[in-house]
C-alpha cells in the first residue's frame, strides 16, 4: 500500500484536487453554467444537508471535556470501578443546556438548566443526565410531552405562552416545588459555571457484597452559586444571546478550569420503607439533616471541543447508560427516561450514534449488532453476528448481575424464559404440527427442505452444529430425525449416543 497522500490543496470530498472555488464553469464569460462543474453540485448538496434535527428539549447547550478525580473512598457503597480508588481519574464530557428554547435561543432565559455528564469508564460509559435542580415538575413520564408542549410554542400563535405554562402547572399541583425554584433567581443562573448539578432521580449503588443502597447525586459548583436577577437576565439577553457559551468557552481557554464537587446522599433499603415520603418521587428532595452529603470526588472541565457540531451537537446522553455498581431505582420518571433517550438518539443521529467519537466507549464493545446507516467502525469484522454460536469467545459475565429488587409481593428480576414456569417444552407443539397437521406430502417436503438447508452447514464446527440440531429433530419426532440424518449422511447411532450423552 502506498503512503497516505497528504496535501493542502482544494479538493472534492472524494479527494479530487480541484482548481476553481469562485467561478462556476460557463459557456463563455456571460453564458449559462455547465452541469459538469461537479464541485458546484457537491457544495450545494452538502450544504442542503447540514442540519440535523435539534434535540426536542435542551436544544441550546454548551459542552466541554474534563476529568473526574475520586477524593473520598465510597467503595463500601459501590463496586463501580470509576470510584474504586482515591486519586483515580476518569475522562468526562459534560453538556449544559437550557430546556425549552430552540438551538438559537438565548442562554439567559428563565428555565431549568440541563447538567449532563458522560463518564468514560472501563465498564462502559456512565451518563448522569440531570438538571441544576434536585427535583422536577412532574412525577410520571406520561406527562412529559404534555408538560414540554407548554414550554414550547403555542400551536396557533407560534409564540411562547405563559397561559399554557400556568394552565398546566395549576392543573398539576405536584409541579409547585419546582415552579417555586424556577421562579426564584435560580431560574436564571449566571452562566453554567455558577450552578450546581443534580442527578435528581434516586439511583442505586451496589457494593462488592451485592448490597444495595439508594443514592442521590449532587455536583456542587466550586465557583459558588451565582444568579442573575430578572432584570439582569433580560438585559443580558439583549446584549449577548450566547452568554453562557461564551463564559464557559473563555474560562477554559484562559486556563480558568471550572470545577464541581460530586457528593452523594445515601438511604438504606430499610430507611426507604420508613421515611414519610416516597423516596422515588422526583418532586421530592431527601432532607439533608437525615441524609447528609458524603464527598466523592471532583470534576474539572479543562478542554473545549475542537469542533462544536462534532462533539456537542452530536453528543448523546442516556439515563439508560449505567455501569456495574450504579443502577436504576423504581422512580417512574427515571424508568420512562431509560426508554426515551436512546430512541431520541436513533432518530436524531441514527442507529449507529454510539460510534460517533464523543459517544464511543473507548474500551471494548462486543455484541451482535451489525450494519445500519453510516456504520464506520469495522462492523466487528468477520466475527459471528448471532448468538449463541460455536465460534467466538464472547462471554456473558454473571459476576455483573445485579441483586434482585424486593418490591414486597413482587420480585423484579431476570427470569429464565426456558425455566419450568417460563415454558421449557420446545417439542410437543412442533411434534403435533408435524404428525397431526401435516399431510404426508407436506411431511416429505419439510424433511427434504430441512436436509437441503442443513446441507449448507460448513466449517470446523459442522458436525457439532448438525448433531445439536439433529438432537432437537429426534426429540420432536424420531422418524423426522432419522430421515434428516440419513439425508445428510450422518450415522444415526452416533447421533443417538451423543444425544443420550447430553441428557
Ligand atoms: C419522562 C421524563 C423525560 C423525558 C421523556 C425526557 C426526554 C428527553 C429527550 C427526548 C431529550 C433529547 C435527547 C437528545 O435528543 O439527545 C432530553 C434531553 C435532556 N433531558 Fe430529558 N426527559 C425527561 C425528564 C428529564 C429530567 C427529569 C431531567 C433532569 C433531571 C432531564 C434532563 C435532560 C437533559 C440534561 C437533556 C439534555 C442532554 C444533552 O445535553 O444532550 N430530562 N430529554
Task: Explain what you see.
This protein has 503 residues and is of the alpha+beta class. The protein folds into 3 domains: 1-50, Cytochrome C Oxidase, Chain J; 61-355, Beta Barrel (Catalase HpII,  Chain A, domain 1); 428-502, no CATH class. Helices cover 29% and strands 16% of the residues. It is built from 14 helices and 12 strands. The strands form 2 sheets. Strands 1, 2, 3, 4, 5, 6, 7, 8, 9 and 10 form a 10-stranded antiparallel sheet that branches. It has a two-stranded antiparallel sheet with strand order 11-12. β3 (113-121) and β4 (124-131) form a beta hairpin. α11 crosses α13 and α12 crosses α14 (492-502). The chain is globular and about 90 Å long. The two termini are 55 Å apart. The protein binds protoporphyrin IX containing FE. Residues 55-58, 61, 95, 97, 114, 116, 129-131, 136, 141, 144, 200, 315-317, 333, 336-337, 340-341, 344-345, 348 line the site of protoporphyrin IX containing FE. Belongs to the catalase family.
